[in-house]
Each structure stands twice: as C-alpha cells, then as structure tokens.
TrEMBL record:
This is Tryptophan--tRNA ligase. Keywords: Aminoacyl-tRNA synthetase, ATP-binding, Ligase, Nucleotide-binding, Protein biosynthesis. One of its GO terms (molecular function) is tryptophan-tRNA ligase activity. Belongs to the class-I aminoacyl-tRNA synthetase family. The gene is trpS. It is an enzyme of class 6 (ligase). PANTHER family: TRYPTOPHAN--TRNA LIGASE, MITOCHONDRIAL. Its EC number is 6.1.1.2. One of its GO terms (cellular component) is cytosol. GO terms for biological process: tryptophanyl-tRNA aminoacylation.
C-alpha cells in the first residue's frame, strides 16, 4: 500500500493536479491512501482560518478529481494518534538525526523564531507513514531523506522494543507533467508562490485562467518549439497542453505555428480539464454536511487502520 500526502500550504494549483492528483485518480492502486497534511502546514507562520478553509477545499478537490472518498483522510483528524506516535518515535530518534535533515537546514536558514515543529516534522511524517503501515511512499528527491528517517526509526523501534512497524521505502511517484510558473518559468508552479500571476489554481474562474495563460512569459522566437532548457516558458505551455490533451509536447509544438494560437489552445485545454473538477468541488463545498460526513468517515477508517500499531508501540515502549 502506498501513502501520498498533499499539504494545504496554499490553494491547489494546476501543477498539483497535472503532476500528482490526476495521476493518483487515474492510476493509483485500489489500496493506496491519500491524506491532506494540514499539520505539516503549521511549521511556519500560518493563518488558522485560512488553513481550515484550504483543508476542506483540498478534500473536496481530491474527491472531485476522482479519488475514491474512502481512500482519503485529513491528517489532523488523527491528531491524537499521530501526536502519541510522534512522541514514541521522537524517543527513538536522536537530535542529530533530525537536525541533519537538509530541508530543515534550508528552511530554517536566515529565519528568526524557527518553530520547533520545523525540526520535528520529519518525525511526524514518519508517524504518518508508520501508523498506516504504508510499505511504499512515493516522494520526490526533496522528501526521500525523510522517508529514509522513517525507515531507520521503524527498524530501530522493531529491533529495540518489538516488531510493530512495516519498514517503508521511498518509491518514484506516479508523475505527470512538471508544471512551471507562467510568470517565471525558471521556477516550478507552487501553491505558496507569493506572486500568483503565474499560478493557475484549480478553482480559478475560466476567464482568469485565460488571462493568466495569455500573459505567460515566452521568448523572442516566432514559433513554438519544445526545448525545456533553452526555452522554458514555451516548453512549459507545450507540456501543459500535452498533459491536458494526452499528446506529447513535441506533437503540441508541431500543431501550432504562433504563440498566440498556442496560448489559446492551452487556455482552452486547461479550462476544459479543470471545469468538471471545479464544478464538482463547488457542489461538494455547497453541501458542508455531506463533506463533513465523508471527512469523518475517512478519519475514522484511518484511525482504525493504525489503532493496533499505536497501542502495541505504546505498550512495548513501556507506556500504557
Ligand atoms: N509545479 C508542479 N508540477 C508538477 N507536480 C507538482 N507538485 C507540486 N507542484 C508541482 C506535486 O503535487 C504534489 C503535492 O504537493 P505537496 O503539497 O506535497 O508539496 P509541493 O510539491 O511543495 O507543492 P507546492 O504546490 O509547490 O506547495 P508549496 O508552495 O507549499 O511548496 C506532489 O506530488 C508534488 O510533486
């Protein structure tokens, strides 16, 4: 079973959809689990009401995108279980192991008032994985060190106190397109980009999507060509078009002779790809009682899945 998370650090954007969520919905295994990592969105300054709203929105988007509701849960609905297991795992982890995480060093550098949770969040991530008994964790390069820590902690706990945890391993994610920021194609599209002019959000209105794509940075050439290193802006548009229409970026390039026509085609393809998801999401958000029911059921199932591991771990480590 594979466990994948998505963090509500901002509104879900096109890169999240084409790069991850659409693939999860289309190609994910029947046993795979997906969670909204809202506790992970608190390691730096955050707005509580904003976070709560984005968490509900993201839950609705995942379901609207076609992920089976019974495969989805919200991390904070397991806050008690995860809090307890994180403590157990922190008592299995050295300070040095946490402090050497590259992401911690990068994110903490130059920040004042660094939250302790920024240091310990890889242990919470280990708890996410070990509580569910996930064997495989699809992650990019930036998160593989954290999965390695989860492996180390699972092995250490099992050999020191008794066999409880499945030892997980990092696997290559099911990746779709890598989507770059439309206004600055040298960087990836991200939900938390301070300037959202180059970010298409899944719930953007069609007119706004069209405006953002029309304004996308390209280059001084006259016709589109797929050359990601030399021409990242137009290549990004071709990748997006390819991902939305099921063609290759090279085929998309061959089909368009001007940037204007390409941008119109990209805008139409993105709008039509996101339209049904946007409509279903808005319908789900308009029925908060139903969304709450789905959320509760997911949280209960996820807590039940991990219950025996948590109680065994607590008993073996000498608590309870
Ligand atoms: N631009 C992207 N292109 C393709 N895939 C992307 N993903 C994110 N951005 C792109 C994929 O979305 C999944 C969930 O992402 P995440 O929430 O775990 O974190 P992230 O990669 O850090 O996403 P963001 O949007 O860039 O968030 P912030 O701004 O908080 O850093 C992952 O599978 C990710 O690869």
């Amino acid at each position: 079973m594979r466990l994948s998370g998505i963090t509500p650090s901002g509104h879900t954007q096109l890169g999240n959809h084409l790069g991850a969520v659409a693939r999860w919905a289309a190609d994910g295994g029947a046993e795979d689990l997906y969670f909204i990592a809202d506790l992970h969105a608190m390691t730096t300054t955050h707005n509580p009401a904003g976070l709560r709203g984005r968490t509900s929105e993201m839950l609705a988007i995942l379901i609207a995108a076609g992920i089976a509701p019974e495969r989805v849960f919200v991390q904070s609905d397991l806050a008690r279980e995860l809090g307890a297991l994180t403590w157990v795992l922190e008592c299995t982890c050295s300070y040095g192991e946490a402090a050497r995480m590259i992401q911690f060093k990068e994110k903490a550098a130059g920040q004042s008032g660094v939250r302790l949770s920024l240091l310990t969040y890889p242990v919470l991530m280990a708890a996410d994985i070990l509580l569910q008994g996930a064997a495989e964790v699809p992650v990019g390069e930036d998160q593989s060190q954290h999965v390695e820590l989860a492996r180390v902690l699972a092995r250490r706990f099992n050999s020191t106190y008794g066999e409880v945890f499945t030892v997980p391993r990092a696997v290559l994610p099911l990746t779709g397109a890598r989507v770059r920021d439309l206004a600055d194609p040298t960087r990836k599209m991200s939900k938390s980009n301070r300037d959202s002019a180059g970010v298409v959000f899944v719930l953007d209105e069609p007119d706004l999507i069209r405006r953002k794509i029309r304004r996308a940075v390209t280059d001084a050439h006259s016709a589109p060509a797929y050359e990601p290193d030399e021409r990242p802006g137009v290549s990004n548009l071709l990748e997006i078009l390819g991902a939305c229409t099921g063609t290759t970026p090279q085929e998309a390039a061959a089909a368009h002779t001007s940037y204007g026509a390409l941008k119109e085609a990209v805008a139409n393809a993105v709008i039509e790809t996101l339209r049904p998801i946007r409509e279903r999401t808005l319908a789900l958000l308009a029925d908060p009682a139903e969304l709450e029911r789905v959320r509760k059921a997911g949280g209960t199932r996820a807590a039940e899945r991990g219950e025996h591991r948590l109680s065994s771990a607590l008993r073996l480590i000498g608590a309870g």
